[in-house]
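Data availability (excerpt). The following record was deposited with the supplementary files.
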Amino acid sequence: MEYGKFAGLVLAVLLTGCGGVTSRVRQGRVPATLDQTPEHRDYIEAIGIGASDPALPTETQRKSLARDAAIVKAQYELLSMVKGVELSGGIRVERALEKDSSLETRIQEVIRGAEVLKSEFTSDNGCVVTLRLSKKKLARLMGVKF
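Predicted structure:
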């Protein structure tokens, strides 16, 4: 097989095999129902929806602030999910935080480092952000096993 065809085939497999990130915006709007599968085998995924002051003078400012707000909301959602995760030994992260104050700092650092998979803007300059957090990275930095 030619190199160009082979490279194209590999790219097609990678794009379809990973499934890509689900689009959350339809025709410039956030739909009334958002389907979400937050926990996957190797990662936890969260979405955040943000808006900005429509009186801001430029579209760039409105979009930038909306994206920042969406990222913060998605990080909050990730934190809520992580607190509910069960560690080996049957204890939940939320309970472990009560015993180890440095654990919360480590969790917040991991969540701030979550991968931004997609930022989608709505027609009114709102934003929907999808974040992904590796379970392996989370376990390693927390020093625990899930």
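Summary of structural features: Confidence is low (pLDDT under 50) at residues 1-19.
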